[in-house]
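Provenance and format

Records in this collection were gathered into a single text stream. Each protein contributes a sequence line and a token line. The two records reproduced below are adjacent in the stream.
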Amino acid sequence: MKLTVWVVEDEAPVRQLLVIALENHGYNVLAFADGLEVVNHAAQSRGKPPDLIVMDVMMPNMDGYEAIRALRSNKRIKDVPIIILSAASEPDDVLTGMEIGADDYQTKPFNIAVFLARVKKRIALHHKYNPYLDLEITTPKTTGLCVGVNRYRDKSISNLNTCENDARLLYNILFQSDTEGRSALLSTEKKSPSATSPTTNTIIGNLVKMSQSADPQDTLMFYFSGHGSYFEGQSYLFPADTYSYAIEHTAIPVHKIKEIMSKSVAQSKIMILDSCHSGASIGKTDSIMSPEFIRDVFSHAEGFAIIASCKQGEKSYEWLDSGYSAFSYFLIEGLQGKADNDHKGFVTVNDIARYVTHGVKEWARGRGLVQSPTVQIESVGDVVIHTYP
């Protein structure tokens, strides 16, 4: 017997996409244009309840929240798993949906493979069987560059303590099985045989190589842990050979990184920046995340998911007891599975954004500090970053 999914979505093109995708994967699908339609159908129907309901939030006549409340009061429907599908992506939106009675929350725009994986897993949990016995999902490869800079040639730029650990462990998690040369680790300390010094030329050269080698279905990622600053109208990242008296000639403009990545055919691009570290100085200036730096990093970011370690006016703290920066500690922990709240077996952009934001804020609050990671996702969807063991 086929499994049945009800789709509740007011936008006809999205509704049609969901119906086609689900039917192509063997589901029976009933589609509804708003919350009132599905609630009335549930009240009148005497047949077998659906195996899962996909629910939009912002709809005419009755929104998704009200519809979920009504369905949860229906004895036949009350235990059916519900996945919210919504463009509202703030942590508070997700929490509201879960508190009202949803079992999962998928943000728009979305990756159809990830969506189908969520559907299958939720139905499996509902019926208590193993969803992966016949699950066939093609997880795109991640191609990318991890850069960690502790030591600077210019003595007026203060050295850092944890950036190389950050980059090395992230590289090992994401690319340990890479045998095709689709990734690179750049670090000022050669603790890894695969590491190369993170100079301006090696960073640019390797990023160009990775961007060109990525396939259309891939995710292209750039991670940088080190100094960053805003200077004369541009945001810069500081490689090891940056000089404070010649920033515009020796540092790398963030827009250059985005420009190189934008030319790649990879369907998704992710930039993760852990910079503006506390207690650090560049020349005679304290390192702090300026409003201009944030604005420049997040501008012209169509097609990107960008995660920065803190908000404007804040600093990015090193967690010396752990050996990592606080931001990268929670990033790495999340990628190892902690961010996968619904036990899918993989971690997505939205999973890691929620986990890192919450973890860093709580870590800082417990120490009387303030650090709030900043996230911007533009037309990337819920992309799989890492599949963990």
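Adjacent record:
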Amino acid sequence: MANLYTVENLLEGKEYNSRSLNGEIINGEKTDHWFGSDKQAYRVLIRTPYSYRDHYRIIAVKVGE
């Protein structure tokens, strides 16, 4: 039997890098934001190494081919 993964599980542990925030994605959940017909939006929780606070960001994930 093949392993079954969700996008949320695949996002966990990945690095998030932007101009204002760098850190590790702790978890993600699907949201209703719209980025286009072949993308899904996820609200991700990011833990930074230099802050006591975690931060949320909305990211787009391409789905399909």
